[in-house]
Amino acid sequence: MLKIINLTCGYGTKIVLYDISFNINRGEFLGIIGPNGSGKTTLLRALSRAIAPMRGEILIEGKNIRTAPSKELAKDIAVVSQNPPLNHMSVEEFILLGRIPHYQGFQFFETKKDLEIAERSMDLTGIFKLKSQPLSQISGGERQLVLIARALAQEPRVLLLDEPTAHLDIAHQVGILDLIKRLNKEFGLTVIIVLHDLNLASEYCQELLLINKGRIHKMGRPDEVLDYQTIEEVYKTIVVVEKNPLSSKPYILLVSGEERQKRGKEA
Which of 11, 144, 253, 254 ranks highest by number of CB atoms within 10 Å? Predict the structure, then answer.
């Protein structure tokens, strides 16, 4: 579905990512993890063409995204950003913006089909009851669902998400990731998601891409990537890695400084 070849990119003359190469299969659920400043969001921005590569290529089904018309690219790739909007546009009006790539020549208003697809997106995300509410009057978790609904209204084949669970409580985190997993499984949507929480990444992602200092450190299944040696090497902190008793996925336990001191004295 996606092929990234020797990608080097950044901002101005500052290079953030160096020589990144990997493939993503259709219908895959890939999590991008790594310390702050490692280049996770920069990679997502390159995949969405928000920034141009300094070197290398990004191909979607063999086509270079750099030369694809914007409207056509928007039909392939939708982005859920980190910061939901705060304005007085209604939920439905905002979601209908996702239909713009599908507008025909000289079309200025949404069609019946556009309205039906927007309603279906609201149904899938469970926010139909909010359709008339202004974005400024709904909660942060609800606004995140609105962003996902707008992305779904684009009818993309690839969904890019930049920390969609940031600043949300655990119930909203699980709810949003359950929804994304369902969209991935039931509709074959290819998902690429940036996550800070390693346990959420382990539980929900099929594959993990660990970035450190702008380079790929490791890529594979959660049990191949999230061992304690790798985490301690990259994140520079001591952890204990166990198995989730229900899913058998890796589960990371943090070790506080106080506990480390105590253990050091005992040793």
Answer: 144
